[in-house]
Amino acid sequence: MLRLKLAVAATALLAGAAFASPTAPKNGAEYTTLKTPQPVQAEGKKVEVIEFFMYHCPACYALEPAMLAWVKKQGDGIVFRRIHLPLTGENDPEAHMFLTLEALKLEESLHAKLLTTWHVERRRLKSDADNIDWAVKNGVDKDKYVAAYNSFSVIAKLKSAGRVAGTYEVNSTPTLIVNGRYLTNPSMVDASNPGIPRPQLDQATLQVLDALVAMSRK
Fold it and tell me: Where is the Thioredoxin domain (predicted)?
């Protein structure tokens, strides 16, 4: 009986250690430090947090509710922004859609609807025509959308999106960059903390994010 109790206690201790690790993440495990720090768009004591994502990415969709709650909790302490990883290169239609809505200052208001389209309605927006049709059906003026879609600034950003991702050493989504210096994502947290149940992985990732934001403030 004593041996059984000790075995149970040891198992509980190991489990506790696994779940405690995201609160004290280690470089090279739960996160990495970028070889070349990138400039940030945050001023003063605010910390910039970037989410690299893709509209079609199931893991991005799964993270979204917890991510939004985390951002709201930070208040004015952070500057949060998204960058769409261009999966298919310079003509990636998803990234093109994102950059167009961003240029029109509609990305934030339509982000949830786009995710719903992909992951709840299971509609695939895989072409320019799909994107334009979706935008118009969701209340965007067609002429303004097309003008922004074909604008020099949007096309230039689209063509450089892959290079931008490369400077941040991003090759998968969702990936989070803190203060232009630290990179983490659910896959890293999962690999470094075997045994975390999938429903708790997103919260563990946000614990790592908390620690990286605190490090950045120091």
Answer: 10-214
pLDDT digits (tens, 9 = 90+) for 88-112: 999 999 999 999 999 999 999 999 9
Is position 70 within any domain? yes
Cβ proximity of 142 and 132 under 8 Å: yes
What is the residue whose two structure tokens read 């947290």? Answer: 189
At position 111, the amino acid (one-letter code) is H
Question: HEC states along 65-87?
Answer: HHHHHHHHHHHHHEEEEEEECCC
Residue 37 has pLDDT above 80, yes or no: yes
Number of structural domains the chain divides into: 1
Q: What is the DSSP letter of 49?
A: E
CA distance 54 to 177: 15
Q: Over the Cα atoms of the chain, what is R_g?
A: 20
Specify the CATH number for the domain of residue 177: 3.40.30.10
Q: List pLDDT tens digits, range 5-19.
A: 334 334 433 444 434
pTM: 0.88
d(CA 110, CA 105) in angstroms, rounded, equals: 10
Q: How far is CA 185 from the centre of its chain?
A: 8
